[in-house]
Amino acid sequence: MFNLINEIKEGVRLSILGEMYTVVSKVSYYTETEVKKWYIKVILTGHKILVIAPADDFMYFGEINNCFGNSSEFSESIVYNGLTYQKDVEDYQIVREIEFGNPLLVEGEVRYADYKNGDSDVFISLAWVFRTGKRADVIAQVISKEDVKVC
User: Fold this and answer.
1) How confident is the model at residue 127 (pLDDT cuts 50, 70, 90)?
2) Total structural domains in the chain?
3) What Rg value do the Cα atoms of the chain yield, rounded?
4) How many beta carbons lie within 10 A of that of residue 75, not counting itself?
5) Rounded CA gap, 30 and 58, in Å?
6) Helix (H, G, I), strand (E, B), or coil: what is residue 92?
7) What's the pLDDT tens digit per position in 49-105?
8) Does the CA dihedral 115-47-56-35 come out positive or negative?
9) Are 85 and 75 in contact (CB under 8 A)?
10) Which residue among 107, 109, 113, 146 is the one 20 to 30 A from 64 at the CA level?
11) How far is CA 111 from CA 22, 93, 116, 144, in A?
12) Can you tell me the distance from the alpha carbon of 47 to that of 117, in angstroms, rounded to the nearest whole number?
């Protein structure tokens, strides 16, 4: 995963699950409870996002889609496509480094909650952005590094 992270540069084209996207920004973060485990968020064209957490060997790819309301509060469960997702974690995201990209377009510091359902590969991350006071929710699919190719 570290090699993939290092290959992701501004303007690079990525093939993810067979579709092409252009890299717009790359920011690394850590959380209030996990200050040693950083992760990156790569914003792509088409409102897509790729998140890579190398310490956890975890990646997800999704779309920014604010269909879960606009509150700064997160419930214990949510329903999406007829399935109930349970809150897995709630934390506070802190910017570690903006490698490239417009600082006003990257997520920045947020309060977030991640939701999972054991019968689905869909991963949902709800976020409330402090700078804008708006939600930045993501509906994503858990993927592997084999699903991403730098072109």
Assistant:
1) very high
2) 1
3) 15
4) 13
5) 14
6) strand
7) 999 999 999 999 999 888 898 999 999 999 999 999 999 999 999 999 999 999 988
8) negative
9) no
10) 146
11) 27, 6, 17, 26
12) 24
Say how many residues make up the chain.
Answer: 151
Counting other chains too, the contacts that 43-49 makes at CB distance below 8 Å and 24 or more residues apart are: 43/101, 43/105, 43/106, 44/14, 44/16, 45/21, 46/21, 48/16, 48/21, 49/138, 49/140
Which has the closest alpha carbon to 112: 92, 96, 134? 92
How much of the chain exceeds pLDDT 70, in percent?
100
pLDDT at position 107 is: 85
Mean pLDDT score across all residues of the chain: 95
Provide the β-strand partners of residue 19: 16
The Cα–Cα gap between 31 and 40 comes to 12
* CA dist., res. 62 & res. 9, Å (int): 19
